[in-house]
Amino acid sequence: MNFPREQRGLRLSLAIVFCVITTGTASLAQQGAAIGEPLVILNTDLPKGYLGQPYQFQLQAKGGITPVKWVLNTDSLPIGVKLNEDGSLVGVPTETGSFSFTVIMADSGRPVQKKVQPLKLRVLEPLLVDWGQPPRVNGQRIEGSFKVSNQTDEDFDLTTVVLAVSDAKRATAIGIEHFNLKKQTLDFEIPFGDDLPFGTYQVNLNVVAIVPSNNSVLKDHLTAGPLRVVQVP
Predict the structure, then answer these.
(1) Are 121 and 152 in contact (CB under 8 A)?
(2) What's the DSSP call for residue 126?
(3) Residue 145: left (phi > 0), alpha (psi -120 to 50), or beta?
(4) Neighbours of 78 (CB within 10 A)
(5) Which of 8, 17, 70, 85 has the most other CB atoms within 10 Å of its CB?
(6) pLDDT band for position 37 (50/70/90)?
(7) Structural domains of the chain, with CATH
(8) 3-state secondary structure of 30
(9) Spatial distance between the Cα atoms of 195 and 201, rounded to a whole number of angstroms
């Protein structure tokens, strides 16, 4: 049967509209049910952080529908460090210790996939200084030793100065060292000592470490005393 031209045009238009609606509905249905592969967090071992030193680490994952967002489930990061939505841990730690916390990663799928992951971040003192043999008087001599530790993965350019300061505020160097303190060196002991005139002294130890990779400076300080050197008859 031959239809008038107007009817044929109307039938063609209705067919096109139906096709567009059907295709759009199928696309929306597919979007609404978008589910990616199961979420997996790839790096769960965090590198150590160091007190007062910038920290930056990127958490990474696979699976799911991008973009993904990261949030803290338990707020127990060290003071000065935060977790961004992109999974980056950044900041400058202002406290040491072992910090356990939990993160939640959520994707953009429908329904949303979530992954909960416990993590642990250790923050250490990069430079540690302590007495080995505390300063003492031995005849006319004040002597002792101290220990230095480099807990980082970089060498330090280290300078140590031990001063005996008298009541008259006169300072006498009784130990000066300048050397390369290797990475992960623990409790390296350095002796010091010298003969001094009689009098009462306070011993001051000053340690300065330069980190060549970024020219940052680390410092520590110890004191001991008063110690009295008596006059020999």
Answers:
(1) no
(2) S
(3) beta
(4) 21
(5) 70
(6) confident
(7) 40-124 (2.60.40.10), 127-229 (2.60.40.10)
(8) helix
(9) 12
The string of DSSP codes covering 171-217 is EEEEEEEEEEE-TTEEEEEEEEEEE--SEEEEEEEEEEEEETTTTEE
DSSP string, 36-65: -SPPEES---PPPEETTS-EEEE--EESSS
Confidence band of 32 (pLDDT split at 50, 70, 90): very low
Structure pTM?
Answer: 0.72
Give the pLDDT confidence of 106-150 residue by residue, as tens digits: 999 989 999 999 999 999 999 999 999 999 999 999 999 999 999
CA–CA gap between residue 150 and residue 158 (Å, rounded) = 10
102-112: b (≥16 Cβ within 10 Å) or e = ebebbbebeee
Asked whether residue 12 carries a pLDDT value surpassing 90, the answer given is no
- Contact between 51 and 45 (Cβ < 8 Å): no
Where does residue 118 rank: exposed (0-12), middle (13-18), buried (19+ CB within 10 A)?
Answer: exposed
| Residues 229 and 186: beta-carbon distance below 8 Å | no
